[in-house]
Each structure stands twice: as C-alpha cells, then as structure tokens.
Design goal:
This protein has helices spanning 3-12, 17-27, 32-44, 47-62, 67-88, 91-100, 108-117, 122-145, 147-154. With 155 residues, it is an all-alpha fold. The longest helix is centred in the last third of the chain and has 24 residues, at 122-145.
C-alpha cells in the first residue's frame, strides 16, 4: 500500500483520525499541504455516513439480544438524553471546539455521534465538524512540522 493511502486510511479511523495521520505523513516526508489535504479528506469521509446512520445503529443495538450491545447503546442514549437540554444551546460552537481539540476521543467521529444524539441539523453539524477538523489540523501540523515550516506554508 502506498504511503499516501496509508495516511488516508489512518485519518479515517476513529480515535486516531488526523491527530495520528499528520504525524505519520510527516514521518513519511510528505509536504505539509499534501499531508493536510489527505488527512482532512480522509477524516471527513466517514462523517456524513455517521451522521445519517448512527441513530439507527444505536437503536438496533439497544434492541439487541447481545447484552454488550444492548447495555452500551442504552448507556449512550441515556447519557445523551440526560444532558441534551444543557448542551443544545451551544451545540454548534461546542461541537466545533470539541472536534478542534486534538486529543484522542475528541475528534470528528465522536463529534458526529454527539451531533446525532443531540438531533442537530445535519448540515450545521457537518459544517461544525469540518471547521473543527480544519482547526485540529492547524493545531497538529505546527507541532509536527515546526512553527517556521507551518508559517511558510501559510504565507
């Protein structure tokens, strides 16, 4: 598999996302622009599907005869219901910030799950998540490439 595809597929994985793919692309010697483009596209590719299907998947899991699926889905749905009113007021900005923070578990996949559980409008959620992914790339890239190279890229 080519290194470009490797970085692309790493960026699509939950938890890893572009927080892992950008450092890997850097290790492969990719130019910063190519690395960011590949990582952002790969990170965003699964998101519309998650936004569309995750509620259906959770519903199926919550009615599963497999205890693990049933309990996991029940826990997620109960947590979301409990905190829904508190969160929806700031959902768009909160989702952006949540996705933008480059820590494991705070990326686009989890953001899409949160948006779906809050019944956010898909278009708003997609824009917030995309902006958050771009912000995360902007935060991760200088760490890998160094601030001087990153500033050269911006200019």
């Amino acid at each position: 598999m080519s290194n470009i595809l490797y970085v692309f597929f790493i960026s699509m994985l939950p938890i890893l996302e572009l927080r892992a793919s950008i450092p890997i692309g850097y290790a492969f010697g990719f130019p910063i622009f190519l690395n960011i483009i590949i990582s952002v596209i790969g990170n965003m590719l699964p998101i519309p599907f998650i936004l569309i299907f995750i509620n259906k998947i959770l519903h199926l899991m919550s009615h599963s005869k497999i205890s693990f699926f049933n309990k996991t889905a029940g826990f997620i749905l109960k947590k979301a219901d409990k905190n829904k009113d508190k969160i929806t007021k700031y959902a768009t900005w909160g989702l952006f910030l949540f996705v933008a923070i480059p820590l494991p578990g705070t990326g686009a996949w989890t953001g899409a799950l949160v948006a779906s559980l809050l019944d956010m409008k898909r278009s708003k959620a997609l824009i917030s998540i995309f902006a958050g992914v771009l912000a995360a790339a902007t935060l991760v890239s200088p760490i890998c490439y160094g601030f001087i190279d990153f500033l050269r890229f911006l200019i």
